[in-house]
Amino acid sequence: MTVLLVLLGGMIGAPARYLADRAVQARHDSVFPYGTFAVNVAGSALLGFLLGAHQHLGLAAGVVLLLGTGFCGGLTTFSTFGYETLRLLEDGALGEAGLNVLGSLVLAVLAAWLGFRLALALLTTWSPRSGPSCYRT
Prior knowledge:
Blueprint: H1 2-25, H2 34-57, H3 61-75, H4 78-90, H5 94-125, E1 126-127, E2 131-132
Antiparallel strand pairs: 1-2
Helix pairs in contact: 1-2, 1-3, 2-3, 2-5, 4-5
């Protein structure tokens, strides 16, 4: 069952990456790989949230496999990031290559942390046992 959950998530995540990358990149006339940058940061945020929800809100492990390992694994891409950075270096776009490396690292980790913290914040305002905090007395 585990393999099927990961496979199903990846089957959705990989085409989502391609479509999102093309949509973002089409809006920028630049050598900078905005599409890959965007999907990697967004996928990191989602993965951080899922892991925080699993740890703090009791999100089922199967959901983490489907959406975290499968979908986020298919959505994000280290190999394309590496290739595009190498291409920028080969084209002499050293600034863009450096921005891609440092920006991706900093923003992806920050996005994962913010996603994780969002799940933690939801724990303080909503609990599966007690419902939304606005209904507690």
